[in-house]
Queue: 4 jobs
Job 1
Amino acid sequence: MSTPPQSQAPGSAKASFLVTLRAAPATVPALVAMALFVVWATDQTGYPVTHWAPGGLIVLALLGLALGVVGLDVRAVPLPVKIAVGALAGYTALSFASILWAAVPGDAWEGANRTLLYLLVFALFALWPQRGRSAALLLGAWVLAMIGLAAFVALHVDAAAARSLQLLLPEGRLLYPAGYVNANAAMWLMAFWPSLLLARSERLPWGLRGVLAGGAVLLAEVALLSQSRGSLFSTPVMLVLVFALLPGRVRTFAVLVPVAAGIGVAAPAVLRVGDHLKNGLVQPAAIHSATVATFAAALVVGLVVAIGAAVEQRRSFSPSAAKRVHRSVAALAALALVAILVGGLAAAGNPVKRIEHGWHTFKVGYSADSTTGSRLVSGLGSQRYDFYRVALDEFVAHPLVGIGADNFAEPYLEHRRSDDFPHYPHSVELRTLVQTGVIGALLALVGLGGALVGAMRGLRQSDPLARAVVAAALAGFAYWVVHGSFDWFWEFAGLGAPAFAMLGLACALSPRELPRPGARHVGRLGITVGVVLALVAAASLTAPWLSQLQVQSAARIWTKSPQAAYSRLSDAAQLNPLSDEAYSVAGSIALRFGDLTRADHEFALALERTPGDVYATLERGAIASSENDRGRALELLGQAARLDPRDPLTRQALRLTKEGKRVSIEELNRSILRNAQQLE
C-alpha cells in the first residue's frame, strides 16, 4: 500500500508550497485565471461581452507572461497536445473567417472572439507541465471557491426579503447569479464532479477530503434549486462515463454512497421550494427549510467522509485485508447498481410509454408538459425540437463552412414554427455544425480528440495524486459537454472557460520529455509572429468591448442627455464597424423623441451593416407608413414579414398598411416593449 501523507508544520508546509510552484511555475498565471473564472461565476456567469472580453485580455496577458518568464520548449510538449492546440487554433481562425460570409458579421465577430478566449485558456493550462501537487492546487482552489460561492448563494437566498426572493427564484427556480436557470445548475455541477472525485484521493489530507465531499452535497443541492431537467438527464450519463472510463471505481463508489445519501436526504426539502408555490410565489419558510436541510446534510457527509479518510490514512491494512475490503465494496456497488436499475424501472413504469411520452413532449413543446408535479419529471417539453430542425436544415444548406459564428438567430426567425427566438441552437454539437460546417466540425473533433488522448495518458501517471486530478478535471469538462449538448453553454464564458481549463489541466499532466539543457525555446521569427498575433488578438477583444461600454453608457443617459447619447453611439459604431447595434439603439432613441427623420437614417445605417435586421426593417416600414409613404411602407413591412413570418406585430402593421391605414409608431413600440418585458 502507498504511504499515507503526513501532516506538516506550518513552516514546512510553506516551503513545500514554494517548492511546488518552482517545480511548475506556470501554476501562478493559471491560478490567476482560475480566480477570474470565479469572478465571472458571481455575475451572469460571464455571459456579457463586457465581462468576458476584458477577461480575455487578462488571459492573453497571462499567456504572454508565461511565455516570457517561464519559457516554453515546444519540443517537450506531447504530440497530442500540439495537435489539440493546432486544431483549436484552426477552428478559431475559421470562426474569424466566417465573418466574411455571415449574415450578421457583428455577431460572428463576437462568436469568434469567444472561441479565441477558449483557445487562450486551453493553451495557458495545457502547454506547460504540471505536477500532481500543483495541479491539485489549481483544481482544488477553483472547486473550493465554487463551494464557497454556493454556500454564499444559499445563505443569501435564505436571508432575502420576500420581494427579492421572487426575483432570485422566479417560479421557484433559482436564477441567481447566472441569470439563466440551466446555466446556473451547470455552473454548480461542473464543480460537483471534480469535488466528488478529488474527495476519493488518499493523497489529500483527510480534512480536505471531508470538505470536498460535504461541498459536493452543497453544490448538488444548490443546483437542484434551479430545477434544470438538463442536469437531471446529464447525471446518469455522467455516472456511466465516470464508472466506465475512469479508474478507481471502487474508491469512487465508496465516496459516492455517502454523498448520494446526503443529497437524497435533503432533496425533498429543496424540491418543495419549487413544487409548493403559493399564488405562484416562493415561500420563505420553504427556502429556510431547504437551506437548513442542505447545510445539515453537507455537514454530516463531510464528517463521515473525513472520519473514513482519517481512518484510511492513519491505519495500515495488510494486502489481503485491503483486497477483502476492495471486493466487499465492489460487491456492494454491483448490488446498488441492480437496485438502482430495478427502482428506476419501477418508478418509470412502462418504458415504451415513457419513451413515447418523452418524444411527444419533446416534439410538441411546452404545451405538452404536465401542469402538475415537479418540473423535473413533467416531460421534455421545450422548443428545442424546432431549434434543432432549423439548425439541421441550415447545415444541409451550408454544409462546408456553415452560416457563420453565432449567426443562428436570423435563419431561425425566418423558418421557426414556435414563438421563441433563440440566438443560439442550444447544442454545442449543432452549434459547431451549423455555424462552421463540416470543416469546423472536423477541426473541433481533431482538437478534442488530441486533448483527450493527451489527458488519458495522464491517467497512467505513477503519481496517484496526478491521476486523481486528471480524472476529476476530465469529469468537470465532460459535464460541460454532456449538458451543453442540449443547451447554449458555449456562450457562457463562466462555463466554457473553466471547462477548457480543466481539459488543459488534464493535458498538462500527460507525461512529457524533460527540457533539454540550453535548448532554444523560440526563435526571433517565432517571437515576432507571436507578438503580432497577440496584438491582433488584443485589438479584436478590445474594440467590441469598448463599443458595448459606449452603447450601455448611452442607454443610461439618453433621457437626460440625448445628444451625448448619440455621440457615444457614434463612437460605438466606429469602434465596432461590423455591428448594427449602435445604430439601432440610436434609432430607438430618436423614435422616443419623435425625430422620425433621424430615426429612419439610423435604422438605414443599421441595415447597411445587417440587411436582415428585422427590427430596423419593421421600424423603417412603420415610419414610412406614418408618413403616408404607402409604397415604401409596403416594401419594408413586406420584407420584415418575410424575415420573421410568425411575428404578429409585423403582420398587423402590414395588414393596416394594405388597408390604407397608418401604423402608430407609439403603439407599435409599446407592444414591442411589452413583449420584451414578458420574456425577462
Job 2
Amino acid sequence: MHTLTRRSLLLGAVAAPWAAHIQAKAQAQVLGQTPAAMKIVVPYPPGGSTDVIARLVQGDLQQRLGAAIIIENRPGASGSVGTAAVAKSPPDGTTWLMVFDNHAANPFVLPNLPFDTEKDLDPVLFIGTAPYVVATQPQKAFKTLADVIAAAKARPDTISYGSVGSGSVGHLATVLLSKQSGARLVHVPYRGGGPAMNDAIAGHVDLLVGSTALVAPQVKAGALHAVVQTGKSRAATLAEVPTVGESGFPGFEAYAWWGVFAPAGTPKAAITRFGDALAATLREPRIAAQLSETQQVTLTLGGPPELARFVNEQMRVWGAVVREYDIKGD
C-alpha cells in the first residue's frame, strides 16, 4: 500500500487547479467561448494598410468578443516571418494572422519557407480587395504612365519603384507591365507599406506601387501624385486618375487583398466566432466608410471557403507570373 506523504499531498494540491485550468480551457475552445485575450499578428511594420485595418477594428472587436485584442507587428521577409510564427502557434483560438496579397505569392518567390501556406494555416475571413496605384512625389516628372515608360526606355534600369515586398501583387503586376511595355524598372522591396510610403514621399524612390488603401489618403493630402491605377475601372476617390487599361494596356487588372488566417487545427467554433465578430465590426458604418469610401477597399467579408478559393486562384495566377518571368525574392 502506498503511503501519502505531506509532500505528495502538497504536489497534488498544486497540480489539481492547474489541470482543472487546462481542462476548462480546452472545453471552452470546444464550446467556442472567447479567451480573455487574443493576438492579431500583422506580419508587416506599422503604418501599412494591413496594420491600419487591424488597428481600425481593434476597439470594436474587443467589445464584440469581450476580450483584449493585441496587435503585434512581426515584419520581415515579405510577411513570412510573422506568418511562420502564427503557423507554429498553438491552435487554441488566441492567435490570428492578418495578411496582405503577397501571402499567396511567397511560396513561389521565397524558397524554403518554414511553413506550408496551404496546410499550416486555416482560412478565417476574406476581408476585401482594392486596386493598386502607381504614385510619385509631385515634384518628379512622371505625370502619366507614358512618361514613366518613356523615361525607363531612355534610361534603362535607373527608374526605381518601391513596393511592400517581393511577391506582392504590386511587385508582380509591375514586372508584368514592364515586360509588356518594354520598360526596365528597378524594384526596391520594403518590409511593408509604411516604410515604402515614407521613402516615396521623401523622393528616395521614383515611384511607389501601393494599394489605394495605402496611397489614396496621401494623394488627397497632396503628398503624392497618382500616375495610374490598376483596377478595371477608376476608383471613385481617384476618379481623375486613368487605369492601366485606359493608358494603352487593355485588359490589365491587378488588385490588392486582405485576409485573416489561424493556425491549422484551430477549433471551427473559435474560427466562426472570431470571423463573425470581425465581419460584423467591418460592417459598422464608421469603419466600412473609412475603408470603402476613403481607401477604396471593396469589402467582401467572405468566410473560410471563399477565402480558400480566392487564395488558391491567386496562387495559380501569380505563381504562373513568377515562373514565367523567373522572379526571385529580394
Job 3
Amino acid sequence: MSVVHAGVSGVAWRVRLREPALRFAQLFAVSGFAFAQPLFDILGKNAEFFAVRGSTPGDIVLFALVVTFVPALVLWLVELVVGAFSSGAAAVLHYVFVGFLGAVFGAYALKRSGLDGTAALIVGAVAIGVALAVAAWRLRPVRSFLTLLAVAPLVFLALFLFQSPTSKLVISSGTAQAAEIRTRATTPIVFLLFDEFPVIDLQQADGGIDAKRFPNFARLAASSTWYRNTTTVSASTTVAVPAILSGQKPRRGALPILRDHPNNLFTLLGKRYRLVVHESQTRLCPKSLCKQKGSSEGSRLSSLSSDVRTVYLHLIAPPELEQRLPVIDESWGNFGGNSGDESSVPAASDSGALPKVNLSTFYLSRVSDFNRFVASFRKPGPGRPTLYFAHILLPHTPWLYFPDGRARAVTTTNAPGRNGERWFNGQLATQAWQRHLLQVGYTDKLLGKFIARLHAVGLWDKALVIVTPDHGISFRGGDLRRRPTGSNLADLAFTPLFIKYPGQTDGRVVDSRHVSTLDILPTIADVLGITIPWHVDGTSALKGGAGSGVVDVAGVRAPYRAALAQRQASLARELALFGSGDWGARFDGTGPYRGLVGSSVSALAVEAAPSASAHVDRLGSRLLRRFPRGSALVPSPVVGTLSGVRPGQPLALALNGRIAAVGVAYRNPGGGPVRFSLLAGEDAFRTGRNAVSVFALAGSPSSPRLHAVRTSLAG
C-alpha cells in the first residue's frame, strides 16, 4: 500500500512541477530572443567592446550567463510567488510577461527591419506583444512551439562564447614576451597620440600652421620635423592604433589586444626601456611590462553592466528616445566617460552655484589621463631610459571644450545632425566642425602644458618626441563621418605628424615624402639603432624615397596626387567657412545668414511670428536665468524645441539684444519635434540674467527680415 502511495505522490509532484517548468521554458525562449540574441549578435561581432575595457574571460562568461538566464528566471520567480496565493493570477501574469517580452523583441525586430517612426515602432511592438500573448493563451500549438524554442537561448549562448569573434577573449587571452634586441640606446621616448584630428585643422592658406589659433602646435613645428603629407591606414581607432604601434598593415578580424598584436612598440623596447604607458582603446602592452592601473572587479563589472544597458537601449529605443542616450559609436567603452576623478570637473564660482549637470556627459577622464601622463615625466638619469606613451581621446568627439578650457553645459553629448555615420544636415555638420575646431584649440592649450613639462624636466632636448593622431574625421552634409568614401578620403587620411629628433632645435617641413603611420615604428627603431625582429610594412621616415603612390584607408584607395588635391580642396573649403587667425564670429553661425552674428537686433527689420514658439531646454534655461561670474560651464549650443516652424528654416539667436548665433531648424530622422541648436560664443553671455530671443530669418542675406519667435525658458 505504501509503495502505491509513494508512486501516486511522485506522479502528483511531477504533475505539479510540470506546469511551472513549461512556463519557465516559454519565458526562457522569448527572453532569449528579446535580450540574449540582440546583445550576443552585436557584441559578438564587436569584440572590441570587451577588449578595450580589459574584460577577463570570467567577466564575459558571467555577462553571457546573466543575459541568458536571469531575465527569465526573475519573471518566473515572480510567477511562483504569485502562484502561491492564486494559480489563476499566476497564469494571467505569465501571459502578460510573454506579451512584454514579445513586445521588446518586436521593437528590436521592427527597428532592425528599418522602421524608424517612433509612433509606428511603439504601436508595432505592442501589437506583436499582444498577439504573442493571446496566441500563447488560446492556442496549444503556440505554447508547445515556445516550449521547444527553449533550446534557442542555449544555442545563442554557445555561439557567442565559442564561435563569435568574442570567443578569442574567452578561450585564451594570449601572452607575449619582450623582443630579444641588442641596443645600448639611452634616448628617452615621449609619444603623445591624439585622436580624430585631420591635418587641415591646423593649416592656413599657405599650408603652414595657423599660429594665432594654435600657438603651441606652431611652437612644436618650429623645433621638430613636420611630415605634412602623412596618411593613416584606417579611420577606426582600434585598427589604426595597433597599426601604428606594430608597423604592420591591419589584419581582418584582429582585435586591439596583445594576443593579436604580440609584436609592437612595447614588446620591442620592454627589455631595455622602462615603460610608462596609458592605452585608452587598446590593450597591447603586456602586464609584465606595463604597470597600468587596472580596474577592480567591481568597477569593471559595473562599467560593463552600465554600457551593456546603454547598448541594449540603443537597439530597441524609438529614434526620438534614442537621441537622448549616450552615444555608443564614439568609443568602445565607458560611454558615460566619467572617470570618477573630479579634479577636472568645472567648478562653480563664488558668485553663484552652477546647475547640476550629469557629469557622465563630460568625458572628463581624457583630461585627467593627460594630466597624469604629463605629471609622470621625470628628468633623464642613469640607468634604463623611459618610453612615455599615451593615447588621449582629444580632440575626439564629444566636442565639449572651448579653446580656453571652459566646457559646454549640455545634457547630451550627441552633436546633432548625424544619423549613424551619415551627416543628414549640412549646416549641423558645419556646426559640429566648428565645435571640433574649437576643441582642437583646447588640445593646443594642453600641448602647451606638454611642451612646458618636457622643458622643465630636461626631456625636450634629449628625447625623441612624437606627436600625432591616429586618423582624421570628415564634416560633409550627406557624407559619412568616419567611414571612408571617395569624397571624404583626404579628410580621414591626412593627419599631422611631428617628430622632434634628439637634439633638434630647428623646425623642418617634409613634403617630398608620402609618410604612412606604418612608418612611425621603423623610424623609432632607426633613431635607436634597432633592427626590428619581425616583418614591418612601413619604412623609416629618415630613409630616402617618395613613399607610396597610393593613399589607402580601410580599402578605399586613391592615387597619392589625387588625394593631395582633394586635401587642398578640403582646406580651401575650411578656410572659406572659418578663415584663419582669431576665432571670432565665424564659429557662431552656419548658412547664408551667418554674417548677422554680432549685429544689434535694433538695427534690423523685425516683425512678429505669432504662430511660432521656441522652448529652451532645462539646463540652458537655468544658466540663462543666472549665469555665474567666471562660470566654467557655458550653455552653448543653446538648444530646444520649436512649434510652428518647419525644418530647414534659418534661425537666429539673440542674447541681450545682439545676434549671437545663426543656424537652422531641424528634425531628427524618425520624427519628433522640430529642434534648434544654436552655437553662441562663450563671450556672448553676461553675468546674471541673459535675455534670449529666437528669430526666423527671411529675405536675402544682405537685407534680412527677422520674425520674432515667442521664446520661453524651461521652468
Job 4
Amino acid sequence: MKGYRALGQLMTLLAPLALGSEGCQGMNTPIYFASPVMPALAVTGMDDAMGNPPRIENGVTLQFRNPTAAEQKALDAQTAALGFMVPWIQRDHVHIELVYQVTNSDSKDGTFGIDIDGHNEYTEYNEDIVAMTLGEGNDDPPQYIPLIPVTPQLLGAGQTVSGTVREDDFNEAELDLDAIGRWMAPFNAVLINNSQVNPIGLSMVPPNVVIPALIEVDVSFTATAQMTCTYDIRVRDDNDQLLHDAGDTLFSPTPTLFVPPAMMMTTN
C-alpha cells in the first residue's frame, strides 16, 4: 500500500506474465505487467463537487530482484569511482513502454486524458502533491503536472481506441525524475520542457550520471463521459533483473517523496 496518494488509491503488486522461459529472458523478450483490477480506471463522466472531471488512479510496481554480492560489489566500486550513487535498476538496461486501451461506453462523445507518474529507487513523484502545492491560497482548479502527459483525445460514443506511451517518453521521464530528485533541478521547468529541445535545469545533472529506471508506474485517468481504461506495461530487461527465480529476493527501496520547494517553505 502506498501511503502518499491524496486519493488513497490501492496499489497492487503484480507478478510479471513472462513470455517464454523463466530462465534467461533475453534482451529483446518483453515481459508484460497488467493494470490492476482494483481500483479499475473507470469513470462515470460526471464532474465532482468542485466541477472538475472525475480522476481515478492506480499503479503497478515492477518486481526486481536484489543484486547478488558480486553485483553489489561492482555497484559500490562504480559509486566510489564516480562520486555519486549508482542505481541498481538503470534506464539503459530496463526499457519500458505502456500500451493502453480506452472504451467509451456512454451514449455521448467524450474526451479522456492519461497522466503517468511513478518512482525510481531514490525519488517518488506524485502529481497530486504538486497540484496541492500549486493550489495553495487560491480557488483555481488543480494544475496537474505529470512525469508523462498523454495528449487528451476525443472518443466517440461506443468507440474504443488503443495507444502506446513509448520508450522515449519513459526515458525523458526517468531523466526528469532523477534531475528533480537527486540533483535539485527546477521541477516545473524540467517537466514542462523536452530535454532534446530545451534542456533547461539539466545543467545541474552530472554529464556522466547513471540514470535510474522507474520501478513503479502510476496512471491517472480522467474522462468527460463514461469510460474505462486498461493498460499493460511492457518491460525489456537486458540484465535479467526482474524477479522470477525462487531463490531471488525482492528489491524494495524506500524512495523519498518529492516535495515541491513551495511546500517545503510552508512546512518548515
